[in-house]
Amino acid sequence: MRLVLLGPPGAGKGTQSARLVEKLGIPQLSTGDMLRAAVAAGTPIGLKAKAIMDAGQLVPDAVVIGIIDQRIDAPDCANGFILDGFPRTVAQAEALRELLARKGIGLDAVVELVVDDTKLVERIEARSRDFGGRRPVRADDNPESFKTRLDAYRQQTAPVSAHYAQKGELKQVDGMLPIDDVTAAIDKTLGH
Question: 14-55, pLDDT tens digit by residue?
Fold first, then answer.
């Protein structure tokens, strides 16, 4: 199964992706995680991405598309993958469609976690407060950067939902439900 999981930062995409990975046996491809790995490795693209991510901004399409292209060719993606945090723009959605078409594959599902912005800000503030002393908090997980990321999502990424909806490919799930209920709703949406 090839799946795109959409939703604003803090919506629970990572949590739900992890559950889908376990259930479906396919990898989660989080562009954020891939970019952070490049940052940690100190690669040239990682250093460039670090400055952009620390400012709460989105990494350029060419960088993200290249990372996705290489990653989906890996053997563990042969039976599918879950894209988490990509596509972020309609241009990326079209680039993904073209990329997959060149590889002779397509998407099986596009699922959006629909959430309340105010509650998302409360979640990130609690996460920053709760985990700040016990584990490192991402530089872009502070409330101010988070609000910048949320604004960027609403301006640039929200139209992706409309793009997939126009094509009849979008399935929406209430991301404000308890975690297990969100999982059950996604399973139902995917026919599992």
Answer: 899 999 999 999 999 987 777 777 788 887 777 877 888 788
Residue 155's domain spans which residues? Answer: 2-181
Identified catalytic residue from 2, 19, 50, 88: 88
Q: Which of 13, 19, 36, 50 is flagged as catalytic?
A: 13
Give buried/exposed letters for 124-158 (b at 16+ CB in 10 A, else e). beebeeeeeeeeebeebbbeebbbbbbebbeeebe
- CATH number of the domain residue 138 falls in: 3.40.50.300
167 is catalytic: no
- pLDDT tens per residue, range 136-190: 455 555 677 778 888 888 888 889 999 999 999 999 999 999 999 999 999 999 9
* pLDDT value, residue 181: 97
| Structural domains of the chain, count | 1
Summarize the confidence of residues 70-92 as an average pLDDT. 90
- As a whole number of angstroms, the distance between CA 157 and CA 149 comes to 10
Total-model pTM: 0.79
In a domain, 192, yes or no: no
